[in-house]
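Sanity check record (used in CI):
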Amino acid sequence: MDWRVLVVDDKAADDVAETIGGNKTVPKPDSISCEKCADFFQAVELLKNQRFDLVILDLKDDGAPEQETLAGERVFEEIKKCRFVPVVFHTGFPHKVGDQTSPYVRVVTRADWENLRSTIKEVLDTKLPRLIRHIEEEQRRFMWESAERIWADDLHKDNPTDLVYLLARRLANSLSGDVVRSFFGSDGTEGAPKSEMVHAVELYIFPPISQHFLFGDIFEKKTSGKSEYFVSLTPSCDHAQRKAEFLLFARCADLSDSEEWKKVQGFLEAKTAPSKSAVNDLKELMKDNNPRPRLQDRYKYLPGTSFIPDLLVDLQNTLTIDREKLVSGEAGLERIASLDSPFSEYLQAKMIRYFGRVGTPSLDTDLTFERFKSRTMKT
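Expected output for Response regulatory domain-containing protein:
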């Protein structure tokens, strides 16, 4: 991969390019090629018309008059308006932009060359620049292969709105799964799921994007430094239309408190390999195939990610919360994620089965067996 880096610096652009270019920062077969720009605001035009994988941005234009907002800060704001691209501030005033730091915005003190190289490598190792390239390529291919065929074969020419909606939904559906899996496959990333299965993160929309609360929203409540988790069981339409005065939630149990995990944990603490049956019972719980049949529909497993631990939605442990208290924040619950489709619908179907059970007295099967045997043998 040839990484294209835009170096924006009115004095040290040559030094930066010389320090990071070629294989001085990334190992072969990857390399870095630099586009140098001494004019801060010309850099914005370059970003509008060309694609770059990373921007190395000086903060102060020494030729400009002193201003409260430095040139690099203004350029950074313009960059955010026109393109998403990771940025590394390379400046003698790192304290000025320290609050901007994130996984894709980093700050390095000027002329700390070793730190600059390691920071660039860290940004590239997040795989974010590689994923951006991959998505852009998939989007280009999708539009050329899909738009013309759909327009020619499937839609009335006098209704372009249909084309826009259809293409947007198909592209979103493609990006939600297949594109990410193909990225993992081409990139050789460790931790990718098997091709026919899903990654834990695919169950969630994080952070939530709906303005309304939804069935399957996941909430966190922090108390004395500890977190409790809850899942909304109120139908989405009741949320959107404000039909429900009181909202139904299920508490989530921590998977680490389950009997299945404690059996495995016991083996591990004894420094012995867990038994196959103990491991299989835990995996069955993760598949929502509870090894304890009487609990089959009571629990729904939520795999752990960077934003929630491994949880079991407990449909027997429910509570209601006043809607106004939830909206105002008085209830102390913060919505952190939403279950995506079809996992939200799966939880709803499980809930309907669990709450819709009709209990009946047990049949005396010993008696019915004897009666059936007697009648059948006589004939």
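Residues 203 and 341 are 8 Å apart (CA to CA). If this sentence no longer matches the regenerated tokens, the check is flagged for review.
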